[in-house]
Amino acid sequence: MKKRQAFIALLLGLSLVGCEPKNQPTINNPVDIQTPSPSLVEEIRLPDNEAFRRIDTQSLELGVIVNNPDTETLKNVSQLEYYKDEINDETLLLVPKYKDSKVEILGLEYENESLVMKEPVYVVKATPEGYGLLIETNRPEGIPRLLIRVSYNEKTSDYIISSHLKEGEPSLEYLKAVDSKEKEGELIEATKDSGLFKGLNLINEAMYDMDKDGKVEEKLLLYSEAQQDQQGNYMLDDGQNWLLVAQIGEEFYPLFGPGYIQLGTLKYTAYEDYTKETFGVLINRTEGAGIKLYECVYDKTAKAFKRSLVYQTTGNIGIVEEWNQ
């Protein structure tokens, strides 16, 4: 009897071999997954000058001027160079934002009622890492004698060494970048795109003889996003887009914009040059961050305006007052 029971149990055991319950999950043998060794990543460094980072980590300009730097500030500059002027009762430290910047100090002279740049008295074609220039000079209250120029990657900043008079010397002054193409001048050619005016309101319209044919039939059109109140006055917000367009026939020349101006306005002065027999427009862009003055002159032969940047404020400024006649 016992042998028979054992035999039946053996048969049942053999019948279950290779059978899996319907809901039993399949278990795979674990695979030996090896974590790959990290690849060598090439270090990409920003071209910031280390000396600049130690003094200022937020500025987006081409450099900084530190007036009357103390000993602790000078310790931040590992590659300190010196320029000593003939008159040297004040010191200022120039620190470019980028290494490989070009730094020049140029002489200035007053000729024919304007400042004229002379030959450089100091030049570094490519500044090294940690570079700074300590300048011993004088800030004249009258005609300035020296100009600092910093250039990097087709951008330039000029800084005239002169007295700040009553305001005194701020501890830091920033060198604002100007695109070299903008400074040298660019041609503004005609367009028939009426989409320039989308979302803008006409602020002012005036007629001139731009092509000097004896007929006053060309227009200057000033547009802005500003809305009018019930009295017809324009209400300016903290910032809005502006557009200044010259219209000759059916074609438009966008002399400025459309461009956004924060805490400021756009103004212009139209003039005729009787000597050159040309028509020009001086555009004054004033905003909280600074002032830019552009000159646009119409070239009748090229049928285009040449626009150039003729003035830009340097350092941090605040508009105290604007007087309008």
Please describe what this structure looks like:
- There is one protein chain.
- By secondary structure, this protein is mainly beta.
- The protein has 2 domains: 50-180, no CATH class; 186-312.
- The protein contains 4 helices and 21 strands.
- It has a 5-stranded mixed beta sheet.
- Strand 16 and strand 17 (251-262) form a beta hairpin.
> Radius of gyration in whole Å, from Cα?
35 Å
Strand content: over 45%
Judged by helices, strands and strand pairing, the structural class is: mainly beta
Number of helices: 4
Domain count: 2
Write out the strand line-up for the largest beta sheet, numbering strands in chain order: 2-6-3-1-9
How are the SSEs placed, and which strands pair?
Elements: H1 2-16, H2 50-55, E1 63-67, H3 71-74, E2 79-84, E3 90-96, E4 102-111, E5 114-124, E6 131-137, E7 146-152, E8 155-160, E9 172-175, E10 178-179, H4 180-184, E11 186-188, E12 201-208, E13 218-224, E14 227-228, E15 234-235, E16 239-248, E17 251-262, E18 265-273, E19 278-287, E20 290-299, E21 304-312
Parallel strand pairs: 2-6
Antiparallel strand pairs: 1-3, 1-9, 3-6, 4-5, 4-7, 7-8, 8-10, 11-21, 12-13, 13-16, 14-15, 16-17, 18-19, 19-20, 20-21
